[in-house]
Fold this sequence. Notes:
Layout: H1 17-23, H2 33-40, H3 50-54, H4 61-69, H5 73-81, H6 87-93, H7 105-110, H8 116-130, E1 144-148, H9 152-163, E2 167-172, H10 180-183, H11 194-203, E3 208-212, E4 215-216, E5 219-220, H12 222-228, E6 231-234, E7 240-241, E8 254-256, H13 257-266, E9 278-282, H14 286-297, E10 302-306, H15 318-326, E11 330-332, E12 335-341, E13 348-353, E14 361-364, E15 367-370, E16 374-375, E17 384-385, E18 388-389, E19 402-404, H16 416-434
Parallel strand pairs: 1-2, 1-6, 2-3, 4-5, 6-19, 8-15, 9-10, 9-15, 10-11
Antiparallel strand pairs: 7-16, 12-13, 13-14, 17-18
Helix pairs in contact: 2-4, 2-8, 4-5, 4-8, 5-8, 6-8, 9-16, 13-14, 14-15
Amino acid sequence: MTHSPATSGIAGARLSPDQYAENFTDLHAPLNTHEALVAADRCYFCHDAPCQTACPTDIDIPLFIRQITTGTPEAAARTILSQNIMGGMCARVCPTETLCEEVCVRETAEGKPVKIGHLQRFATDVLMSAGPQPFSRAKASGKSVAVVGAGPAGLSAAHRLAMHGHAVTIYDARAKAGGLNEFGIASYKSVGGFAAREVDWLLGIGGIEVKLGQALGNGLNLDGLTKTHDAVFLGVGLTAVNALGVDGEALTGVVDAVDWISDLRQAEDMSTLAVGRNVVVIGGGMTAVDAAVQAKLLGAENVTLTYRRGLDRMAASKFEQELATSKGVHIITNATPVEMHGIGAVAEIEFSYTDGAGDNYRLPADQVMKAIGQRLGDAQGLKIDSGKIAVDDVGRTSRAGVWAGGDCASGGDDLTVTAVAEGRDAAINIHATLMGG
């Protein structure tokens, strides 16, 4: 059966202001001082801490937790931020359940890990609310570095380079800095404009100029950047959205989940964001879950997340999967889209079973969100590895004087915390190279 576009249920203002406020509160309430001390007291302070080994930024987790127990959260924050300058955001969005907390000795023994992510947020929030950052800029080196991309990798690289006294210019395609943290994560994971506040706090070190509305291939190119700067770091992310390649993909109501989440993140009034009655999200990663959950929180009646493989193959963690189902999202696995049906606007989406379990079937859908991954945009002639800019273990690309990190670079696992680590490590190597090391 094919529906007419008149039946489309895409609309805004589905809920009352109080419902919007309640639905988009902080996913995890912050710990107060007493709660933080109780949580920290559970740590064994392991000498060969597996949690630290599992942390992509190598934060000394036992040390910072011990500092919390001694009543010095500011010192704990300095321990965190010396390794991960974006430790505040990472505490909110990092999948700690599959990294540091998964290998916690308490998790192994009792099935209940130390709340490492919550404790990291507690410490960094205390320090950030107290005033300016504790890091200072070294004496000017006389060297200039261009950082393309104001996301986690670029900001991390810029801050470390500024600490070494280099003059840094950040270029970004958008009208606001922050990258994924500002535009690409669920609103309930970062409330109260935290992403923007963290950027302002980070830039407080000085020596970093931000130029917005400039992208590689659109006002910027590597030839020009390498002539005007002593080094270049690329943290441009993945900017091109993959297509499904099925009939009906151009119908009204079929949108890219990344763009939809960005619109939601920048909306001052949640009621202005249109959402369907019957929403289908295609994908199995964090973006798919974020889109599906937020569609439900915005008032969609039925939200279905479909993935072409089994639950065990989903990039989204078990925690994220359970979060989705707890919010009323229905997850269908081993399903791949075959065709979108509708006249002008999407009304149904047809799937086939990837495991050959049965005949094709259709789901009603007045809004379809594609979350099947992104790909690299303009690579500027750099060597590519598996669709990303090829880099070595410190971020050097195939072109002398150019480094890269984060989602655009090979070898990472597309996490905010990994991007921060790669930006930091590339900056350390850039500094050593510029100073003749």
